[in-house]
Amino acid sequence: MKYKVYYISGSGEEYSDGIWTIKTTPKRTIAEKVAEIGAGIYANHEVGEKIKIGLSTGNPIKDEDVVDGSFTVYFKQAGTPYIFEPMIERETPKL
User: Fold this and answer.
1) Radius of gyration in angstroms for the set of CA atoms belonging to the chain, rounded to a whole number
2) Side by side, which strands form the sheet with 71-73?
3) Rounded percentage of the chain residues whose pLDDT exceeds 70
4) How much is the pTM?
5) Where are the alpha helices (DSSP H) in the chain?
6) Fold exhibited by the domain 2-86
7) Which of 7, 9, 34, 63 could cross-link with 72 by S-S, CB 3.0 to 4.6 Å?
8) Reported confidence tier of residue 2, pLDDT bands at 50, 70, 90
9) Biggest alpha carbon distance in the chain?
């Protein structure tokens, strides 16, 4: 599944950090940045970068919302929240 990711700066402003995918295996969960949105001048991660997320990785997941599927990750346990919002993938109609 693809997620639109943005983070909130210390001053409360929102910045895009692109589009990410999440892959889960029995041993780990990996987030990979697959695309930029816009110019990407405020992006903190490079396209193709992979990061292990979860409690035992130092990149904990918080504030999971079971209704809309969004969640927050604090990379390197820093105070900057990265919000992952699921993107709705629509099927193209067959003509």
Assistant:
1) 14
2) 50-53, 29-35, 14-24, 2-8, 82-86, 71-73, 61-62
3) 84
4) 0.78
5) none
6) PH-domain like (2.30.29)
7) 63
8) very high
9) 49
